Amino acid sequence: MLPARIVLYGPESTGKTTLARHLAAVFGSIWAPEYARFYLEQQNRLTGRFAQGVVSTLADLEPMAVGQAALEDALAAQLPPGVDWLFLDTNLLTNWVYARYYFGEAPAWLPAEIARRGYDFYLLLHPDVPWQPDGQRDRPEARQALFDLFKAELMATSRPFVEVSGGYPARTAQAETAVRHFLAHR
Predict the structure, then answer these.
(1) pTM of the model
(2) Which own/partner pairs from 138-144 qualify as long-range (CB within 8 Å, at least 24 positions apart)?
(3) For residue 158, how far is the Cα from the chain centroid?
(4) How far apart are CA 14 and CA 8, in angstroms?
(5) Closest CA to 21 of 182, 180, 175, 137
(6) CA–CA separation, 128 vs 140, rounded Å?
(7) Domains in the chain: boundaries
(8) Each residue of 132-167: pLDDT tens digit?
């Protein structure tokens, strides 16, 4: 049986990584970081091609999605005994939304793989916290529009989700409550 995959989901700079790390600690599990960050850091280090502000290219979509799936699977295999849930800082649905937003297309195999992976529950984070630049984030003005795209994708595919908003203490409390409810009713 695959572990339940709980996804921190939404536009950039909304606290997904911080919250994923926190939830994994609170619920005795592990979390999978965003593979695209690692991939883009490697590309910058190896080629220097992002020095002029280009965050990613169409050619990056495939290796970022493949890497994300492999990372999720590797970490799911390392769950502690008795724990059958994993927190994801992002997932392939995030890759899908960003690919279509930035490039107007995505790898053709991605929708079937998203469906196959069985992402179970989403915490959709509002962009109502300050944007923090980090060298990879590039659209502070687009966070609300991206939030709307992320939400529309969840609704169009009938995926279970809870919206999380407010400052970090409020987000943490909302997320913990939502996860407790999800785990108790699965």
Answers:
(1) 0.90
(2) 138/12, 138/53, 138/55, 139/11, 139/12, 140/13, 142/11, 143/11, 143/12, 143/13, 143/14, 144/11
(3) 17
(4) 10
(5) 175
(6) 11
(7) 4-184
(8) 766 665 666 788 999 999 999 999 999 999 999 999
52/6 Cα distance (integer angstroms): 35
Q: What angle do CA 3, 66, 105 make, to 5 degrees?
A: 115
Nearest to 59 by CA among 3, 107, 13: 107
The CATH fold assigned to 4-184 is Rossmann fold (3.40.50)
Q: What's the half-sphere exposure (Cβ side, CA atoms, 13 Å) at 137?
A: 15
Give the tokens for residue 182. Answer: 């999800």
Residue with structure tokens 């997932």?
Answer: 91
Q: pLDDT tens-digit profile of 29-58?
A: 999 998 988 888 777 755 555 554 556 778
Residue 162 has phi, psi (to 5 degrees) of: -130, 135
Residue 158, C-beta contacts closer than 8 angstroms, at least 6 positions apart: none
> For residue 154, which of 145, 162, 144 has the smallest C-alpha distance?
162
At 112 the pLDDT is 95
